[in-house]
């Protein structure tokens, strides 16, 4: 047997298990998803899940870490202040990562409070708090907090669970969703201007 077959099949199995886990976590919730369900969805034995990840928590971490890293990287680019309109570029980066990492973002945004004891969720929460501060500023109003929550949480929900509200044939593709989110999210995130009294 060639030596490169086994490592490649291990990497493929690990990736397939992560993908199946994200689908299950986003659809049913982390707590309601068993390792057996993940194994069945990926077409592997439960022992394969444990071989590759050791626990459901380790699998969750491996599955959502790329999304957390993407949020952190977008923030670092924004904080570096490069580009002509850093805020607009940050919003574009966030829309793009919402599309690319929709299930992972859904898991740590929507289910995060119930998983707050897990280190990867605490890291994701910190990244989202930093994102909020970057987009809304330190003295944000209640309206700005609501706008941020609706923009981010609403998009995360739309891209995962919200897809079930539309007939399969009428579902927009990622390019259409990206274009719409690029137009709508900046409007939602526009700071509230209060009239001077």
Automatic annotation (TrEMBL):
<keyword id="KW-0238">DNA-binding</keyword>
<dbReference type="Pfam" id="PF00440">
    <property type="entry name" value="TetR_N"/>
</dbReference>
<dbReference type="InterPro" id="IPR009057">
    <property type="entry name" value="Homeodomain-like_sf"/>
</dbReference>
<dbReference type="InterPro" id="IPR050109">
    <property type="entry name" value="HTH-type_TetR-like_transc_reg"/>
</dbReference>
<dbReference type="InterPro" id="IPR001647">
    <property type="entry name" value="HTH_TetR"/>
</dbReference>
<keyword id="KW-0805">Transcription regulation</keyword>
<feature type="domain" description="HTH tetR-type">
    <location>
        <begin position="11"/>
        <end position="71"/>
    </location>
</feature>
<feature type="DNA-binding region" description="H-T-H motif">
    <location>
        <begin position="34"/>
        <end position="53"/>
    </location>
</feature>
<protein>
    <recommendedName>
        <fullName>HTH tetR-type domain-containing protein</fullName>
    </recommendedName>
</protein>
<keyword id="KW-0804">Transcription</keyword>
